[in-house]
Amino acid sequence: MASAAKAKQLDFAKTPINSKLSAQQKVRLLTEMVRIRRFETESLRQYQAKKMGGFLHLYNGQESVAVGCVSLMGDDDHVITAYRDHGHALAVGMTMNECMAELFGKVTGCSKGKGGSMHFFAPDKNYWGGHGIVAGQTPLGLGLAFALKYKGVKGAAMCFMGDGAVNQGCFYESLNMAALFDIPVIYIIENNGYSMGTSLARSSSFKSCLAERAEGFNIAWGQCNGTDIYEVRANVQTAIERAHNESKPTVLEIATYRYYGHSVADAKHTGGYRQKEEIENYKQNHDPIQIFKRRLLEEGTLTEEQYEQLDEAAKAEAATAAQFADESPIPSEESITQDVYFEVDRQTEAGRTGKHFFNS
Amino acid sequence: MASAAKAKQLDFAKTPINSKLSAQQKVRLLTEMVRIRRFETESLRQYQAKKMGGFLHLYNGQESVAVGCVSLMGDDDHVITAYRDHGHALAVGMTMNECMAELFGKVTGCSKGKGGSMHFFAPDKNYWGGHGIVAGQTPLGLGLAFALKYKGVKGAAMCFMGDGAVNQGCFYESLNMAALFDIPVIYIIENNGYSMGTSLARSSSFKSCLAERAEGFNIAWGQCNGTDIYEVRANVQTAIERAHNESKPTVLEIATYRYYGHSVADAKHTGGYRQKEEIENYKQNHDPIQIFKRRLLEEGTLTEEQYEQLDEAAKAEAATAAQFADESPIPSEESITQDVYFEVDRQTEAGRTGKHFFNS
Amino acid sequence: MALIEYRDALNQAFAEEMERDPNVVLMGEEVAEYDGAYKVTRGLWQRFGSKRVMDTPISEAGFIGMGIGASMLGIRPVMELMFWSFAAVAWDQIINNAAQVRYMSGGLINCPIVIRGPANGGTNVGATHSHNHENFLANIPGLKVVCPATAYDAKGLMKSAIRDNDPVMFMENTLLYGEKGEVPEEEYLIPLGKADVKREGTDISLIAHGRAALTALKAAELLAAEHNINAEVVDLRSIRPLDEEAILASVRKTHRAVYIEENKPFCGVGAQIASMLQEKAFDDLDAPVLRISSMDAPAIYSPELEKKQLPRPLDIVEKVLSIC
Amino acid sequence: MALIEYRDALNQAFAEEMERDPNVVLMGEEVAEYDGAYKVTRGLWQRFGSKRVMDTPISEAGFIGMGIGASMLGIRPVMELMFWSFAAVAWDQIINNAAQVRYMSGGLINCPIVIRGPANGGTNVGATHSHNHENFLANIPGLKVVCPATAYDAKGLMKSAIRDNDPVMFMENTLLYGEKGEVPEEEYLIPLGKADVKREGTDISLIAHGRAALTALKAAELLAAEHNINAEVVDLRSIRPLDEEAILASVRKTHRAVYIEENKPFCGVGAQIASMLQEKAFDDLDAPVLRISSMDAPAIYSPELEKKQLPRPLDIVEKVLSIC
Ligand SMILES: Cc1ncc(C[n+]2csc(CCOP(=O)(O)OP(=O)(O)O)c2C)c(N)n1
Ligand SMILES: Cc1ncc(C[n+]2csc(CCOP(=O)(O)OP(=O)(O)O)c2C)c(N)n1
Ligand SMILES: [Mg+2]
Ligand SMILES: [Mg+2]
User: Fold this and answer.
1) Quick one: which ligand is closest to A164's CA?
2) Do C169 and C228 reside in the same domain of the chain?
3) In this structure, are residues D70 and D115 in contact, taking their beta carbons and an 8 Å threshold?
4) Is it the case that residue D222 has pLDDT exceeding 90?
5) A101-122, pLDDT tens digit by residue?
6) Which pLDDT score, from 0 to 100, does residue A6 have?
7) Is residue B169 over pLDDT 90?
8) pLDDT value, residue B1
9) Probe site for chain A from D302, D309, D316 (most A CB atoms < 10 A)
10) Which chains border C (3 or more CB–CB pairs < 8 Å)?
11) Over pLDDT 90: what percentage of chain A?
C-alpha cells in the first residue's frame, strides 16, 4: 500500500501541470496550505474566546483541495463554494485581516460583518462566496459559467460542494443543464466522508462513488485523492482544459477529511459518529500539508528552517489578523438597512422612488 | 425491423405473467384501453363545446402504459401520477361518470369539482392522484411506498411521471432515499418524446436513456416499449416482484406517444415542434390498441364483432358520462371553503377552536 | 397611440431592451421555439436567436439559480416562470440567493435579474397553479415586486425592471394577456414605486394591485352610476417599492378606503396597507379600512365557482356601501 | 411541576405520543443517531429504534414530500427541518401537497403531518438561516401554524399537533430550547387556536407570538416599574387557527395595542392583526395599533447588531409610550 501510494504520488508530480512548477511555486503551494491551517486554528481560538457568534466550520485537513484547485485559476476562472469557505477565500488571495474581521462581525470584514463565517465574498478575485444553504450554490456556479460562455470568454467556474450536498435536487437540475447547454462548470465534490454526523454510507446510495452519478447525465467525471496536492492539480487541470477548450462540464470528487467537527458546536465528532483512531490515522498518514512538506524536503526544494519560517509567518499573520479584527469597529446601527438594494445604496432615481423599507 | 419487432412481441406474450392470461382477461385489457380512448375523445368534444375550463391533457396513444401497469396491481399496490391522469384513473376502476363530472366542475365529480382534470383521486382504489406540479408527486410516491413498508405490508407504489419531469430535482432526492432506505417504489417514466413543445433531445442529457440516470444511485432500471401491452406488463411485473420480495425500488422507462397536443390549447403540436408524419406513423404502426386488437383477432381470442361491441359500449359509456356530467349540479358556493381542514369538516373540537378562515 | 394587447406590450419591452443591451437574455420553459406558453415572447427567438432567447428544461430551481449566478457577473437575465406558482420549486434560489447575496456580501454583488410570468387565479387550473406570491415576495427585503394591470403599465414597468440593478419579481396575469390598451409609439418608462390613480374620486379610495385594480374600476363605475358614490381608484402597480404617499394622499382626501386584491386574506398585501393606513392616517379615517381578497380556500377548479372565489365588482360595491 | 427545558418539553411530547400511537414516526437530518442538531430528539432513537426515529439525507423536498405521502396512508410523521429556513427548498411540497391535496381531492385525503424545527433569528447565523416563515405559511389555507414561547406551551401544543388530522407547521426557537419552564407531571394538551394571556393588564395590549411574547413580558415589567403602565400580554401561540376573540377581548378592555413579532414587517402577522383590529374594534381603539418587527433587512451576522435588529424590550416601551 505505502509504496503503491508513493508510486502514484510520483506519477502526479510528473504530469505537465506539476512538473513545470518552479521551486518557488511549490513553496507557495505549501505556504498557502499552511496559512489556511493557521488561520483556522486561530479562528477556533478566537471562537473559544467568544469573539464571534454563529457557526464556525473549519477547513483543517482539506487544505490541498482549495489550494490545489485555486492554484490553477486563470484570470477568467471563477470560484464559488458552500459555508466551509475560509480555505477557498484565503487561496484566492483574500487577506487574513478581512476574513478574521468578518468572523468578528466587524465593519472591516470582507462582507462588512454582514455575512459571517459562511458568507465570505471577493468578486474582484473571482470568488463568489460562501453559501449557507446546502447545494444552493450549485445553480449559481452554473450561472457563473453560463455568463462566461455568453460573454465569449474562455473560462471556467469551479463550484465546490460537500458529499452531503449531492442529495439536494438542484444539483441534478444543474448537471442536466450543464450538459445540455455545454456550460464550462466544474463541480468539485469535497468528500470528507461526513455530512454533519452522518457518514457517506448513511446518506447516499451510489455505485463506485458520488461523482459517478454524473454518468447518467452524460457528463465527464472523475475521482481522486486529496492527500497529494499534485493529484488534485492534475485532475482539476484536466477538467479546466475540458471547460476551456470544449466548453464542457466535469464532476470531480476529491477524497479528503476534516479534523474538527462539522462546526465548532459538534460535540460528537470524536467518539460519537467517528472514532479518534480514524482522525489520528488521517493526521498521521494523509495530512496534505505534512505529505507535501516531506516531499519538498526530500527533493531539496525546502529546508526545515524555511518551513519553520513560513509556518511562523502564517501563525503571526493569523495572530495579527485577530488583533486587527479585535480592534476594528463594529458596524453602525444604520448599516443594518444598507446593502439591501443597489439602487438605494447608490441613491439613484430608482432608489429614491417609493418606500423600500417598512419599519413604519 | 418488422419481424424482429414481432419476434419480440411473441416473447413477451410468453412471459409467465402474460401467458397465464385467460381470454376474458385479455379482452378486459383491450376493453380498458378502448374505454380510456373513448373517454378522452369524448372529453375533447365536451371541452370544445365549452363544458369545462382550464387544461385538458389527453392520454390517447399512451393507453397501454396505464392499463398494463394497473392490471398487475394487487390489493396493496398503489398508484400516483401527474396531471395526465385520466387513463390511470379509469384503469384503477374509477367510473367515467365521476371523471367526466370532475372535468365539468360538478359536485358529482370524483373531487367534487374542486380538482379538475389534473387532480383526480380515488384513495379507496389505491389511486392517489393526479398532480399538477411537474414531478411534485415523486416524493409522494416514495412516501406511499414508505408507508407500506412501515406497516409491514407487501406492496408497491407505482409513481408515473413524464420525460420532462425527470429534470426536477426532487426526483433525485427521492431516488437516493428509495435506494438508501430500500423503499418499494417503482418510478415509471412515460416517455412520450416531448415535454410540451420540447423534444427529449432538447430537454435532457443522458446516455442510453433517461432511466439510466438511476444507475448512479445504484437502483435497478429498465427501458421498454409501450406499443405492446405485454411488454409493459412483463417489465412492470419484474419491478413489482422486486418491490414485493426485496423491498427495492426500480426506475422503468416506457417509450410511448401522445396523439394530441400537450394540452388542448397546444396549437403547435402538429407542424410546429413535430410533423404530422410522425404522428401518423405512430398511429399506423405503434398504436397500442390496434396492435393488441390485431393480436387478439389473429389468435382468435376476439372477433371483429366483439370488438365493435366493446368499442360501441365504451363510446356509449362516455356519452352517458357526458350527459351525467352535464345534468349534475354545480357545487354550492359554501363548498368553496369546505374540504380545506379535516377537523373543520368533521366539526371536531379542534375544528371548532379558533378562527380557520379569514375573509373578515 | 396604438391599441395593443398586454402580452404584446411586454413583448415590445423585451425587444426594445434586448436591442438596447446585449446582456439582456430571455430564458424559460418554451419561451423560444414555442413562442411562450402564452405567446408573450412571440417572435423573439426568430429575431434574436438561440443565444438571446433560450428554452430551458423543467428545472425551475436550476434555471432560476443559473440566471441569478449569471446576473452576478453582469448578465441581465429575464427569466420566465410559465406560472409564478412554480416559483415554489425555486423558492430558495429566489429568497436566499437573489434577495440576499447583496446583503451577505456587504454590497459587493448585485443581481440585475427579472423573474416574470403570470401570477393569478381565475383560469380553472386548480389550486397548484393559482398562487399569488406577491405578499410573500414583498416581505423579503432585497426583492422588488411589480404587478401591472394594463398594457401601458406592463410595458413601462418591464423596461424599468430590466434596467433596474436589483432583482425584480414581475407578476403578470393570464387573464390580462389578451386585454388591449393604449400604448404610445415612442419610448417611455414607468418608475417602480409610483402608484397610479386610475380614477379620481372624492368619496372613498379603492386601493388595489394587479387585475383587482380593474375590478375596482368596474366597481367605481357601478358606484357612480347606481349609488352616487364617487370612488377614487389607486393602483399600486409596484408593491415594493411602495408608493405610500399616493395611498395616504388619496385617503386623506376621501377618508375611507377598501383594499382589493386576489391574494388570500391572511397577511395579504391588503393587511399591510390597512395596517399602515390606520397607523398613519388614524385621524383621517372615518371608517375602518375594509379588505376584499380571494375567498379563503385553495383555488377551486369548478369554473362557475372560481368566478365567485375572486373579488367581483359587486363584492366591492357591497363593502363600500357598508361604510359609505 | 417540574422545571424543564423547552427542548425537553418537546422531547416528552414526542415520547408520549410515540408510545401512544405506533404510527407516529420522527424523521429529519441528524434526529436519530446524533440526537438532533439541537438535541430536541435526544435519546429517542435509542428508545424507539431506527424504524420510529430516522435520519434522512439533506433532501428536504424529498423527505418532506415522503412524509406527506406517508401521511396520506395514515402514518403520522413528525418531520424535523433542522432550521425552518430550509423549508425554502421544500416549499412546493408544503404549500401544494400538504396544504392542498385535501382540497383538490374533494376531502378524500388528509395529511396528519407535523413539520417542525426552529424558526428564528438572533443566533448570528446569517440571512439564509434566519427566516421566519409563519406569515407565509399562515396565508395558505389548509395549513395550521403554531409558535410556542414556553416549555409548557411547547409540550401541550406539540401533543395536539401530532394528534391533529391536518398538516401543522410547528415553529420552535433555538434561543428558547435551553429556557426552563414549569411543566406538569401529568399529561395535558393545549388546543390549537387558543391564545394565552400571559399577563393581565388594563392600559394596553401587547400582542405577540413566539419569542416576541417573552420580549413583550419583559417590556410589560419595565412599563409597570418605570412608567406606571399596566400592560396586558397576549401570546397568540397559534397563528392559524387564530384566537381572534382573545385579541378583541383584550383590546376592548385596554383600547390600545402594539403587535410585536420577529418577522419582517411587510405583510407580517402584525399587519394581519392590526388590520383585523382596526376593522373589528374601530371604535374601541383610542390610538392606532402599532407594530414592532425585525428591522427590515436580511438578518445581519454581526452579533452586536443582530441584537438590535430584533425587537427588544426597550423598543416596545418606546412604542407604548408614544401612544399611552
Ligand atoms: C438545505 C439545507 N439543509 C440543511 C442544512 C444544514 N447543514 C449545514 S451543513 C450540513 C452538512 C453538509 O455536509 P457536506 O455537504 O458533506 O459538507 P461538509 O460540511 O462536510 O463540508 C447540513 C445538514 C443547510 N445548511 N441547508
Ligand atoms: C414545476 C412545474 N413547471 C412547469 C410546469 C408546466 N408544465 C406542465 S406539464 C409540462 C410538460 C411536462 O412534460 P412531461 O413530463 O414529458 O409529461 P407529458 O406532458 O409529456 O405527459 C410543463 C412544462 C408545471 N406544471 N410544473
Ligand atoms: Mg462532508
Ligand atoms: Mg412527455
Assistant:
1) 1
2) no
3) no
4) yes
5) 999 999 999 999 999 999 999 9
6) 52
7) yes
8) 36
9) D302
10) A, B, D
11) 94
- In whole angstroms, give the CA distance from residue C135 to residue D268: 9
| Single pTM value for the model | 0.98
- Domain membership of residue B4 (yes or no) is no
CA of A251 to the centre of ligand 1 (A): 19
Asked if residue C123 has pLDDT above 90, the reply is yes
Candidate from C33, C58, C94, C128 with most ligand 2 atoms within 8 A of CB, to mutate: C58
Mark yes or no for CB contact B144/D101 under 8 Å.
no
Average pLDDT over residues D51-55: 98
pLDDT at A163 over 70: yes
Do the domain assignments include residue A342?
A: no
B83 Cα to the center of ligand 2, angstroms: 8
CB proximity list for D196: less than 8 A, separation 6 or greater: D153, D234, D235, D237
Residue C1 predicted with pLDDT over 90: no
Report whether B92 contacts B122 (CB < 8 A). Answer: yes
The strand pairing partners of D170, in sequence order, are D116, D146
- Residue B226 amino acid letter: G
Average pLDDT over chain C, rounded to whole?
98
Domain interval for residue C280: 196-321
Q: Is the pLDDT of residue B3 over 80?
A: no
C131–D270 CB contact, under 8 Å: no
Which residues from B are below 8 Å from D194, CB to CB?
Answer: 353-354
Domain housing A287: 25-49+56-329
CA distance, residue B89 to nearest chain D CA (Å): 13
For C304, the enclosing helix (H) or strand (E) is helix C303-309
**A355 in any annotated domain:** no
pLDDT in tens, C210-265: 999 999 999 999 999 999 999 999 999 999 999 999 999 999 999 999 999 999 99
State the count of interchain CB pairs (< 8 A) between B and D. Answer: 187
User: CA nearest B56 in C: which residue?
Assistant: C125
Alpha-helical regions (H) of B79-168: 86-91, 96-103, 137-151
Q: Of the candidates C122, C152, C183, which is a domain's last residue?
A: C183
